[in-house]
Amino acid sequence: MDSARRQRLMDAGLDVPAALERFMNNETLLEKFLAKFPADPNHDRLAAAIAAGDQEGALTAAHTMKGVCGNLSMTALFDLLTRQVAAFRAGDWDGAVAMMPELDRLYDGLCTAIAK
Amino acid sequence: MEEQNQHGAGDHRTLLIVDDDEFNRAILDNLFAPYYTIQEAENGRQGLEAILAGPDAFSAVLLDVVMPEMDGLQVLQQLREKGLLQKLPVFLITAEARDEVMREAYRLGVMDVISKPVVPYVVLRRVQSVVELFEARRRLSNTVEIQQSELMRRARQIAELNMGMLEALSTAIEFRDGESGEHVQRIHHITKMLLTDTRLGQGISEAEIELIATASIMHDVGKIAIPDAILNKPGKLTPEEYEIMKTHTIRGAEMLERIHQLRENEAYPYAYDIARHHHERWDGRGYPDGLKGEEISIWAQVVSLADVYDALSCKRVYKKAFDRQTVLEMIRTGQCGVFNPALLEAFFAVEPRLHRLYETQKED
Q1: What's the pLDDT tens digit per position in B153-212?
Q2: What's the CATH code, domain B177-363?
Q3: CB-based contact (8 Å) between B116 and chain A?
Q4: By the 8 A CB rule, do B36 and B15 touch?
């Protein structure tokens, strides 16, 4: 991983040293899972569930996505999803939905940084 | 050698990772691969089946909570019901470290709850510590077993040594009596045979019979208190001398009573009783207490008959050896005192075998 890519990922909210540590400095394995991230269906599922007012579906998608972000040390998105999952659980639907613009922004930024 | 056994036994170096998410499995796999053979399961049911197929194959199980088919808590519940959580440490790896999940998991007997996303050095250390603890515990129970059998061996040695000392004492006393030491050995055999092979020993355990046979060799220890002039007098004893001779029963019992270590020995109650009462007779005309019939314990009766039989069959300082027919006739007709009819019946039944003890001797 060159320093430019590393910096782009860091800027997008991915804590590269923490992620590498979780993969025991196995960079190949980290890249393999980073490559899978944009194709992960949970972001689309979350958006669709919110559009449909499906509370159960939204919680499941947000929860699964949170797990993936946690493993990849996508700190900013992970923290936001943690708050969103808590909001869904607490029955604060509007509060959870209000987090979506920020969530999309972080998600897109990460996908772009990974793709480059 | 031992070291080999401990590692060879079961080869407890496989880690089972149960998680429906490939990503999570890959992270844990990558983390633990240097230390374990990794086996993966994609849901609770698969994981449970893998464990039940061979619980001893695994060092530990890392278990996700939210999974299709069967969730982590259900797997825990099953393992608990099968009593497997005592020997197989299970870790819950969960993003759901909520109070109710943790509480339930610990109630079921989980080893530890580790939250996701995992922090490598934390999860590694927590799992390794527990696996090492379980391995140490297994080795320890192995060691305890080895030590136990060593203790048993020593206990046997001590028992043999005790027996040896008692024999030495009894034999030394017998030597003074002008005997060879074989008398006590024969009393031991005769007593044991009468109790083991006839109805006389009914209700007496094999272990007790062994104690009685051991006790029997001490029946004459009181003779150490009898002066040489009386003990080794070739002719008939005067009434006064005979009175002194008779005290070997009471003296023997007193001596045994004074040996503190012997008093704690399981054979002591028998030894005391036999030393004191091996000259009592069924009709109450024996000594020292003039006990009658069932008042005399069966073991004291057995030893008294064994003693008479052996004395008659061998040469003694005051008499020659009688031939077998004479011996049996003298016992039958009560010339050495009256014996319990049941005792005599049992004795005559095994006497042909007892007699062989003397045949081999005469050839020597």
Answers
A1: 888 888 888 777 888 888 888 777 776 678 888 999 999 999 999 999 999 999 999 999
A2: 1.10.3210.10
A3: yes
A4: yes
CATH number of B2-147: 3.40.50.2300
Q: What is the pTM of this model?
A: 0.55
For residue A105, what are the domain limits? 3-115
Residue of A29, A68, A70 with shortest CB distance to B30: A29
Number of domains in chain A: 1
Closest residue of chain B to A78, computed from CA coordinates: B117
Which of B221, B239, B240, B241 has its CA nearest to residue B231? B241
Residues of chain A neighbouring B27 (CB-CB closer than 8 A): 22-23, 71
Confirm if B303 and B267 have CB atoms less than 8 A apart. no
Tell me which chain A residue has its CA closest to the CA of residue B123: A22
Q: Which ipTM was obtained for this model?
A: 0.81
Residue A108 to chain B, least CA–CA distance (Å): 21
Q: What is the mean pLDDT of each run of 10 residues along chain A (116 residues)?
A: 91 94 90 91 94 93 91 94 94 95 95 91
Residue ranges of domains in chain B = 2-147, 177-363
- The shortest CB-CB distance from B117 to any of A29, A33, A71 is to A71
Note the pLDDT tens digit of each residue in B257-296. 988 877 888 889 999 999 999 999 999 999 999 999 999 9
Residue B70: CA atoms inside 13 Å, Cβ hemisphere, count? Answer: 18
State the count of interchain CB pairs (< 8 A) between A and B: 41
Cα distances from A83 to residues A40, A98, B117, B190, B269, in angstroms, run: 20, 11, 16, 91, 81
